[in-house]
Amino acid sequence: MDLGLKGRVAVVTGASKGVGKGVARALAAEGVDVVLLARGLDGLRAVARDIAAQFGVQALPLACDVTQHDSVRAAAEAVRAHFPTVHIVVNNAGEAIKRQDREITWDDADWLGQVQIKTLGALRVIREFLPLLARDGTGRILNIAGASGAMAWMPALTYGLNNAALMHMAGYLAADLGKEGIKVNTIVPGVVLTEWREVWAQNMAKAEGKTKEQWLSGFCRDKGILAGRLAKVEEIGDMAAFLASDRGAYVNGAKIALDGGLTVNAR
């Protein structure tokens, strides 16, 4: 489907892998020039080369640490030199859950380390790229949150706090920026089969003496994922492309669950 996005420009954080990479590819497939942001430049360059070759769009890789104000500002200035206008900003940067201990016992530095990346990182990106965002009705900000922001996913305390913050942020900014013609929405995936999740599922299956497919089937059943499978990164990308397009122009301030029925909470 041609969504009429050809020639627009998108900035995607956390774009070197996983959901960010999937969103960048989905937008590029619609003819959008993409700016790819992440901390690791080598990975970004590989993604940029692949996108440019496959879709014939401009793909600009820029190293950017969203926890650092100066790094985000430098990225925005670099983008300004290439593209005077940005139409789409996708906040996807974040980290996988790395620890399984009770987060209420963590010290302040560990808590703040989590919040710095996703919540404050998204705010920094929006603040620095806001002057470049189109005001003609094509401006979009998309936050990629996660279902843990709408439910208790043990033991992910700060992970859930971050996702809930992104949902609130989108609603607030939809009201704040609506008069400037900028739409702000949140995509709320459930569990997505990213590269990291592939390895995780394989390791969990091996530990229980099962195939990956068998283990994932049981996992989905136990977690109440009605679709019986994890989300594909392409499905998150497709939703992002729709919301970025004129066909999604009436969607504003929304929290769109893309979780296979996880948050229906059928138990």
Overall structural domain count: 2
Described by strand count, sense and barrel closure, the largest sheet is: 7 strands, parallel
Helix and strand element order: EHEHEHEHEHEHHHE
Give the total of beta strands.
7
What name does CATH use for the topology of the largest domain?
Answer: Rossmann fold
Mean pLDDT: 94
The amount of beta strand, in percent, is 5-15%
Helix content: 40-55%
CATH architecture of the largest domain: 3-Layer(aba) Sandwich
Q: Which CATH first-tier class of the largest domain would you pick? A: Alpha Beta
Label the structural class.
alpha/beta
Q: Which geometry do the CA atoms define? A: globular
Spatial strand arrangement across the major sheet = 3-2-1-4-5-6-7
Cα(first) to Cα(last) distance is: 37 Å
What name goes with the CATH superfamily of the largest domain?
NAD(P)-binding Rossmann-like Domain
Please give the count of helices: 8
Notable traits:
267 residues; alpha/beta; Rossmann fold; 2 domains; 7-stranded parallel sheet
Topology:
Layout: E1 9-13, H1 18-29, E2 33-38, H2 41-55, E3 59-63, H3 69-82, E4 88-91, H4 108-129, E5 140-144, H5 157-177, E6 183-189, H6 195-207, H7 212-223, H8 233-244, E7 255-258
Parallel strand pairs: 1-2, 1-4, 2-3, 4-5, 5-6, 6-7
Helix pairs in contact: 1-2, 1-8, 3-4, 4-5, 6-7
What does this protein structure show overall?
The model has no long low-confidence stretch (mean pLDDT 94). α5 (157-177) links the parallel β5 (140-144) and β6 (183-189). This protein has a 7-stranded parallel sheet with strand order 3-2-1-4-5-6-7, with helices on both faces. With 267 residues, the chain is an alpha/beta fold. The radius of gyration is 18 Å and the shape is globular. It folds into 2 domains: 9-192 and 231-264, Rossmann fold (3-Layer(aba) Sandwich); 195-229. It has helices spanning 18-29, 41-55, 69-82, 108-129, 157-177, 195-207, 212-223, 233-244, and strands spanning 9-13, 33-38, 59-63, 88-91, 140-144, 183-189, 255-258. The longest helix is centred in the middle third of the chain and has 22 residues, at 108-129.
